[in-house]
What does this fold into?
Amino acid sequence: MVTTSESKAALNLPREAIRTPMYIDGKHYATAEHEFFTRRSPGHGVPVTATARGSRKDLDLAVSAARRAFDDGRWSRISGEERATVLLEAARLIRANCETLAWFETLESGKPIAQSRGEINAAAGIWEYAAGLARVVHGDTHDTLGPDVLGLVMRQPVGVVGIVTPWNFPFFILSERLPFALAAGCTVVVKPAELTSTTTLKLAALLTEAGLPDGVVNVVTGLGSVVGQALAEHMDVDMISFTGSTPVGRAVMTAAGANMKKVGLELGGKNPQIVFADADLDDAADAIAFGISFNAGQCCVSGSRLIVHRSVEGELVERVCALLEKVRVGEPLDASNHVGAIVEARQFEKIRGFIEAGKRDGVQLVRGGRASSEGERFFIEPTVFRGVDPRSTLAQEEIFGPVLAVSTFDSFDEAIALANGVPYGLAASIWTRDLQRAMKSMREVQAGRVWINCTITGGPELPIGGFKQSGIGRETGRHGVDEYTELKSAHVQLGNRTRWIG
Ligand code: NAP
Ligand code: MG
It folds into this structure.
């Protein structure tokens, strides 16, 4: 890692692409044969980093290292206290290297530097929280099974875990999974998104510095269709934790069937902002503007559908649009910008396609819609479509960009039916001052995560994950560590068995 003094220059662009090899068995790893993929900053259009295109063979090496590290107990059998010490030191090192990590995160993802700094620091907080959980993992006893039997329920680490992450929150999403797997005693092979691999590689080196034994965390970079697919199929991997799109999640689930590995999936969303007529409209407008602009809308819990009571729709849309006028989109290394770049050309074209289709179909565009890809720098203005048919593409499909689809409702039941009328169920926000209405909506809405009079907020204490096609399993919170364990129950005979044959 660069030192604090080196990182003073951090807000400059690198002179050439900074190369980082893979990380296997406690060491950087690359051979002369490895091709390197050069990443261009989507906010600047210039080469900034390069990471190795790993192969199936590299993945096998990493899985073997993780397998050895798990089976010999160097991590899986040490005390929770010892694991917690390493995780806390990791958190300290993450904070100490925040500036460098944030710089790489912004260069590769295009997100504003102030946001990257916030995400790295918040991620350190998750490592601290998970350190505590390393000492909390425990089982259960049943002393009610009769005079001669004691029942024990043990929680054991699931084994070797594969973690596949997306490009939208590379370091943060990894930190919602990895420290929990480690707290449970698992060993891990990570496959980050190729576009944004550097901070994951830097983290692996920091973990060694923090005292993590070799082979416990390994990183294989490269293409999802090669390395990710091989990880999901691998016969020696016991669990796969995948975060990304719903179609790839489906493929991962199929691949995992090869050896019946445990599967955790965090997938897409089309998250409603439900606004009742009695809501604080100023508060709601600010959150709606944030919810659609944050990370340029490339956020799985983005509030991309506004479902608003007909009587306040005009007023609310006006306020949202007025706020969006003040949102600054541009240069990600300028700390005063709110919204940075779209991650790459393909994603940029996909979002633009949705906007153009909306316009073609005659949907009312009330704000934004402009996109620029000059000099291979990709920016899209926060965009609002009004009067969107809830069955249409704009209201049904995950756009993963700063595009808001506004629909109206007349009754409570209609609001809930619209909110639930998509294949996803990741998150929902509810805006009302009426406690009963808030509680009732919270109970009815199909989402793993509900925000009442707020949006996209929280900490590691609460579990996250999706209903319906948004995923399987939960991350973070107490459940976040349970996810990486297997239950084992034991019947202990305390007296004589009743004999089968006299
Ligand atoms: P993606 O295309 O599904 O990719 C996610 C990861 O999977 C990347 O590392 C990718 O590798 C890898 N991958 C691709 N094909 C694979 C395969 N056959 N087997 C195993 N891994 C494979 O998603 P994305 O475009 O990166 O991210 C956007 C999507 O992620 C959105 O739909 C969003 O909703 C979802 N997301 C969900 C959450 C959540 O918590 N629910 C969080 C963030 C994002 P490469 O890209 O390097 O080839
Ligand atoms: Mg992809």
Summary: The chain has two domains: 4-267+470-488, 272-452. The radius of gyration is 24 Å. The CA atoms of residues 392 and 481 lie 39 Å apart. The chain has a mean pLDDT of 96.
